[in-house]
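Late entry, written up from scratch paper. The run itself happened at the end of the previous shift, but nothing got recorded in the book at the time, so transcribing now.
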Amino acid sequence: MPFPLHEAQEIIALEAGYTSWADLKTSADTAPPVGERPEQGESATLFSTPVLHVADVDISATFYRDQLGFRIDFLHGSPPFYGAASRDGARLHLKLVHESVFDVNAARREGLIMAYIDAPSVRELYSEYRATGVEIVQKLTKQAWGGTDFIVRDPDGNGIAFVG
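Output as recorded:
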């Protein structure tokens, strides 16, 4: 069955959270290239993107947007089974899993960290997250190794450490 290109483009735009193909194109034209991070040195060529296992991609993406100030980069599928969220150069991917890979109680008990995010303004970020009511499982702490960090937990129990 023939499928017109313009219809496919509109569907892709809607799934990515845009009202039209033109809006998606405008956003793509002004966005930094994939993998480019702010203030990246010439010799820095590697970075990573943690993939978090979640029970509901839509709910998780909304949490990262509304509670942690991330932007939803894309949601794939209807309902979404994969997505991405980013903030200030940090990027997290969200993958639907029907059954947790980790024992959630053990993850909480053992304090498993699923992602470390560099946060040059870690103290300001900590204050911001306290104000939003995010579950902070480790308060802002000066570590013996010299860094300062705190850990939040997302709705699926994933520990996310913000490190300055």
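The chain has a mean pLDDT of 83.
(Scratch paper discarded after transcription.)
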